[in-house]
Automatic annotation (TrEMBL):
Protein name in the entry: CLUMA_CG017475, isoform A
Pyruvate phosphate dikinase AMP/ATP-binding domain mapped to chain residues: 543-835
Family matches, as InterPro entries: ATP_grasp_subdomain_1, PEP-util_enz_mobile_dom, PEP_Utilizing_Enz, Phosphohistidine_dom_sf, PPDK_AMP/ATP-bd
Pfam families, per database record: PEP-utilizers, PPDK_N
Domain PEP-utilising enzyme mobile intervals: 1334-1405
Native species: Clunio marinus
Family: Belongs to the PEP-utilizing enzyme family.
Family annotation (SUPFAM superfamilies): Glutathione synthetase ATP-binding domain-like, Phosphohistidine domain
PANTHER family: PHOSPHOENOLPYRUVATE SYNTHASE-RELATED (PTHR43615), PPDK_N DOMAIN-CONTAINING PROTEIN (PTHR43615:SF1)
Top-level division of the source organism's lineage: Eukaryota
GO MF annotations in UniProt: ATP binding; kinase activity
Lineage of source species: Eukaryota, Metazoa, Ecdysozoa, Arthropoda, Hexapoda
Amino acid sequence: MDYFEIMKILGFIVTVFVFYRLMVYERRDKTKGHYTRPAWNFFLKKLYAEYKIKQKQKRNQLRVENESNRYEIEAPKILPNEDSSDSQQIYGTDQEGNSLLIKFTRRRHRVAELWLIMRLSNGHVYTFADHPNTKIVNATPRIFEGSGLKLECLRPYSKWRITFSGMLRRGIAQDITDSEENLHFVRMNFIWTTASNPVFWPNDWSPKLIATSLATEKWRDGKWMQLMTKKDSGGYDQYGSCAGEVKVYDQDQSPYVEGMLPKIENFELNLPGIRQRRWGPHKNQHLHRTGVLLGSIENGCAFEVGAFSHKYGLTHSQFGNVLLPNGDIYPIDWTDFNLAALGEYQNHLPEATIVMIQAKKLKLTVMVNFKNNTKVPLYGGTQNESWNAFIVSIEIKFNTLNGRGVAIFWYPKNIREFDIQEIPTKIKRIFNRKDLPCADKLLMSFADKEAQSVFVSGGKGSSLAIMRVIQETKGKDFLDKRDRSQQIVNALIDQVAAKPLKKSFRVEMLMKEGVPQRGRQRSGSLTNAIFPDPHDFDVPDYHVPQGFIVSVSAFMRHLKREPQIGKLLLELENVAYERTVGDLKEICIKVQEAFKSSKLDKFLIELITQKLNQINYDGSVRFAVRSSGVTEDNEETSAAGQNETFLGLKTYDDVHLAILKCWASLYSYQSVLYRKQHIQPVVSSMAVVVQKMIAAEAAGVLFTRHPLNGDPSVVVITANYGLGESVVSGKADPDTFFVKRSHKDEVELLGTKAGTKKFFMEMDEEKSTIKESQINEDQMNSLCLSEEIVLKLSHLGVIMEKFFGTPRDIEFAVTNTGKIYLLQSRPITALNNFTDYEIIHENDFAVMNSHEVTTKSNVGEVLPGAMSVLNQSLFGEGMDKAVAVDNFRKKNYFGLYRYVFVISHHHLLMNVTKLMFENASDDPGAVERLSSLSVYGCDIYEKYPQIIDYGKDYRSYVLERTSAMLSVMLASLFKNDERIGEAREYLENVKNKFSRERLEKLKTSSDICDLIENVQSDLKAIGDTHMKTSQNGMLYQMVIYKILAKGANTLSSDNLNDVSLILSSLGNVESANIPEMIREIASTIILSNKQEEFLKVDRKDAVEWLENNCEAAHKIFLNFLKRHGHRGINEMDVISKPWERQPEGVIDMIKLNVSTLAAPSSGKISKTPTTEEIIENLKTPLGSIAKFFMAKLIPRCQKGVRNREITKSFCVANANEMRRGIYYLAEVMMHEGLLPERDLIFHLSFTEIKDIIASRDGKHIAKAFRRQKLFPMLNTLKFPEMSFGVPQALSNDINNNNEAASEGSVLVSGIPVCGGIVTGKACVCKSFADANQIQKGDILVTFGTDTAWSPYFPILGGVCTEIGGIISHGAVVAREYGLPCIIGADSATYKIKHGQKVTLNANNGRITLAAE
């Protein structure tokens, strides 16, 4: 070995030794209690750790660009071990003292830990009835649902629905109590909406902060990096806002007895805050304690800062991040938050503390005042591993701003003894794939295990089978022992649960093999085939009438034997799905007749006879035959009353015929229509239940919760003498019994309400049916059920709700000996439906503070009304993403939250805060003021001076204040003509893709969805071009404004008039060509001397009349449709019909022009002045240098505005091509049975459409019908010129009485955009539907104008709009026709009365009352 080799070895040994001494070896144990203190080599270790952490974060970066990844990460996690957990925590607070904290931690075996603490500004605090215990043992597996609380993902990382319906205790309990005092029924409906991207732990957290924690600890070996996280653990934080309503019901339940609801306190809340998701080992397994502060600040900032301490490992690991008002999140790089000094002992929390935070260059001082009188204790766990926590409200001083929040401190052991519910025995499942019947098993008894499957027995048969087994075993031996096949099924279920949320992962999806039916459906019975431990319940005596089930297999066997029925069913399906033309009602009748005229085969009759003999042992039994469809009585659709039931049957032949009639009823017109409306397969299957008829003394229906509001503290029973048919059919006015149910499920009679009960139903002694009989006077004046029976029934209802897992609607019968029979049990389906409030606000953006400023101005011009849900998902999100990425350089913007173009009440609004605050100065000058005039139609800084202060607060926390907007505008100076050419090519490409020939080659709705997704890049390119051309014109306008203002911060009236003059001389504007062509058509008709005949023609026949009677006008009309047919009212929304689809609108405008033209007119606009003439006519005196620059700038500015109109037309044409694709998609989905109505597609988001195609999810259809119903109301909503905080629609009852106004009184003021003075009648049009009121010479007063209004401009005397900018449609076209015009006249449609004579002075921007 040579000298060099020896030195290499020695060098390596020395290096290792030095590394060990510097990085690992520590000479003495540096600890403070449980917490390790930094050693002498801390800084070296920190530098090395930070380097390694950055490498690891780069490798393990989680991305959310791909939508499928979002579904996968958001899905509930598989819990592989006993110590596994999966939790969601949502916190939000406003600055008035309202707050909500929810935490849902899923554990194995249906165990969960729930936190719910709601504080209201009135001082009341609400918690769970069992508070402070957090543990529940009856949670719904694989989703976040239990104890009335449900967290439902609507859109991954964007929207979560939070609902609660149950009992909450008012006040803070220190120990569990059975007291009913202060318990209130509360309903909460919130939608959590994100305001940021998710921040993943540990990949997105600060390497510096993590390195600090790691460097503090001893590094005993090379595995020190594993201290950072536990195996299979992870999570993320995301800021957003909970918006919704809370209803607190009064404790006095007596109104229920009177048929009313108790007094309700309503609260409408918007609570900015944070959502946190964590999965991995439960805290009990590895943590010593945790502490965290969550805060929300008045300017829109929010923060999380805290630390956790492991039992073994990191003894003090800090974490946190800060949300800025612009949506950026900065991880905290350094903080002095210290667990050892804060809440180490539970009873020694200080009154106040100061926490220093540094996040990037942002340095924050957070002063925290703990409101110790608000401390809320919580505990949970097991006897061996208990935990304790407490929650305290805090008031915050965030540098100089105020805020509110919460402090959460968690400890591994409880400080007091308490009774913890033990984890129950492992829950077994009834069903597995091996239990499914063979095809030849035609009849089953209720005791057969396979009878519990809805695919075998239908909804009704399945619930009866389950109730029969519970009855016979008293629930004690109800569940079978777990076997290998069961473990396989459970593994399959867990795999499905781990799949994306958009895929259905219900149990029955695993059982579709061997199911003899077409399509798939969701079943309440099967979904809830998981039961609580039966040993926890004392099941009262009840009976299920003897009987059996004619299975679905028997139904399918009958179809095979009757091929003519199969042919009719195929025809029915084709007509129902509009594949062929036919009368659906008539075909349904044919199918029913075919069933009724067919015969049961002898083998089946023999089997039925054997079963009937077992029931009819003495020959005196009467029978009930009930339909049991596989799609009825499930959690989403009950299908109640859709299929037939036959009662009181005497003979076996009657039973045979009734079975055929039940099968036939599956294809009654109402039943088929019901399934079509819920996108269930119209060709479905059915079982039939045959039972012994019970001679009931009384019968009725029991609801385990109040059916109107879902109050779990009230059980409602309706009953009448005799059979229950009189109650179920609604023919009789029954007795009603109200039973109070405690939160411990004890029952007592609350009150009764006697019905008139004029008749009852009983079995007809002579006929094979039932009959109506009169009730005697004694029975009429007495209640049909005793208190004892009522309480027994109520107790049974509670037990059944526990077993089935959902609130139940139960039919029962009581004999004269007091025996109780349960005849049916179905879920109450309407309790978790979306409320109107949720439908209206489901897509609202997250409002993080009361300083958020939004407006309908500008965007209201092209989208004046509500925006369809489909349009929101196709265009609204794309527009917003384009602005955020291109204009504000948001590199990591994935469209999870709205930035500039936001939604409220399904209206598109513009976020002034994001658009203006980030790039404006603290002292806005003339350019910024004129910029606001161009965009919003008013000087927002002068009209709303508080905006300047809001902007200062906003910008003080935005570190990366960029000149992004300016740089984008500068980039727009170049290659505009090339961009427009490229956009035209993109548009042609889109037209080719959506041509009828191309579309007809796509055979499935899935293929069409793929096409729509593929053209998104083309659509974005066209939208980007429009933005660039708009910015180009805006930039030149800003320079011109600067020259005219001569350095002043405000603009004079002369400056405004000069701007109006420059922009009024555009010439050849795209939108101005529309009225020109309309006027040309009208003049051509007049020249043909056929105007009188044309005016008499019906609008629907006018196009044909033009073709036959005025060929020249018809040719111009066709050219008009070719050039402008893609345009119309509300033209940027795919739900609207353009002129090419609805030419009657164009005909109306032609008729109006024909009737108002005294003589033929070319329709051409007067000669456009030259640039030199414009400069000479400017009122603002300019020097020679200024004139030189103006001569260069004016033509470019005018070209920019013209280009803007051209690219706007491209965008509208683009939307129209997309509309073609959507119409074809709706047509194909109709043929596939996935859409009940064509127009319903516009009320579905694109994600929902894909979900329907993938999983036939009917809940989206139900929601779409609700949206469709509310859309006309939403379309009429109006908003203030500027909204601060949560946008609120204006009341439609605004009454601005100006009758007392005298001549010359100013009615409204606005911004003049085209000078002149005119006096005339005010024509107030609150929407385009009122445009038919316009007469020649009228002064139009409306909310805003788009292209559809253009043809009316030639006959107007002047224009006044509530919204719009200097280059808005109304302003541009008014200037082309020289019409006096003002914009930004706030509430003009309310302040001016239709028909009033007014004077519009567009020189000073005022409308005054004129003498009549």
